[in-house]
Amino acid sequence: MNAGSRPDFDPRDPLGIDDELSTEQLAIRDSVRALCRDRVQPYVGEWFENGELPAARELARELGGLGVLGMHLDGYGCAGMSAVDYGVACEELEACDSGLRSLVSVQGSLAMFALWRWGSEEQKQHWLPSMAAGEAIGCFGLTEPDHGSDPASMRTSARRDGTDWILNGRKMWITNGTIADVAVVWASTDEGIRGFVVPTDTPGFAAPEMRHKLSLRASVTSELVLDDVRLPRDAVLPEVTGLRGPLSCLNEARYGIVWGANGAAHSCLRAALDYSTSREQFGKPLAGHQLTQSKLADMAVRVHNGRLLALHLGRRKDEGRLLPQQVSFGKLDNVRGALEVARTSRTVLGANGISLEYPVMRHMTNLESVLTYEGTSEMHALTIGAAMTGVQAFRD
């Protein structure tokens, strides 16, 4: 290629990564971006300030109509798209707000994936088509008040009573819980840890919404309360026993976070670039000062390295070669990197960086939760360390 035919440098895609995406993937990105632009972005600052997601059910139906709920699953009304397709959607959803991507991740990668991978045919037929359409909302009950990173020590229990199961316990920090129609709840039994499909109108089940959050405020976060919840024998997920079940679901959700967190970072970079080129200080645009340009360059390197990492992992997933430790690598690095970008972007915007008129502080506080959920940064570091050394350090 001669110099005259080189493409122009695009400050929003400096490495030309869009060239690595298919026409279909670019169309998915544009469709999700348009939904976010029209249906969420005008209101999300107010939702965040008020600590609510009033349009959750309506948004779920629109997302279902777009085909993004369980989009990487096959059959049962799911779109059957690739891992990279799903990643591109997650990137755009979280560029809008982490709470929106969380709604989609919990629905598709946790609740729906648990049913799709470990459920009976009857369970799949009953729940998955309506969940894919956004007509039914799911949640995933694993984390407990006293057991986050150590799910093997969960206290929620299920015991047999004749042919039925009786569930008792508490789950905490459950996205979608209050608005869910079905909960996939993991409980300790005499047979080991089992998963249960719990319709939320079952007597003894309650899901009070958790308030007073300073992060993920435009998201429904709940406690699950199970007091002698009686379920029929066919409520148990039949195809798995032990932590392999919930951990396989978490791995799916973590993969989406690799893309999503980078979307939040990209949104912060765009905000800093737009602001610095329009704001004047000392007689010229803020972007004309050396320190600002250095910050923009550092943020761009971090964001687009993160995009390359996500794309690489997505292609490995589509090839069936993605390891859980590699997902931990991506989640650890891209979330930490996104926080760095958000904090640097805030300094570029100065005092305006804390205003909800701009997305930066909202992303920054949301990412503090993303750093912790689906495995804390410490747990992912230990996962990588154990894989590198062959020595487990979780219980030392």
Description:
Residues 242-388 form the Acyl-CoA dehydrogenase/oxidase C-terminal domain. Pfam families: Acyl-CoA_dh_1, Acyl-CoA_dh_M, Acyl-CoA_dh_N. By secondary structure, this protein is α+β, with helices and mostly antiparallel strands. The chain has three domains: 16-132, Acyl-CoA dehydrogenase/oxidase, N-terminal domain (Butyryl-Coa Dehydrogenase, subunit A, domain 1), CATH 1.10.540.10; 138-241, Butyryl-CoA Dehydrogenase, subunit A, domain 2 (Beta Barrel), CATH 2.40.110.10; 245-389, Up-down Bundle (Butyryl-CoA Dehydrogenase, subunit A, domain 3), CATH 1.20.140.10. 49% of the residues lie in helices and 14% in strands. It has eleven helices and nine strands. The strands form three sheets. The chain has a four-stranded antiparallel beta sheet, covered by helices on one side. Strand 4 (182-189) and strand 5 form a beta hairpin. Helix 1 (23-39) packs parallel to helix 4 and helix 7 packs parallel to helix 9. The protein is globular, with a radius of gyration of 22 Å. The mean pLDDT is 95.
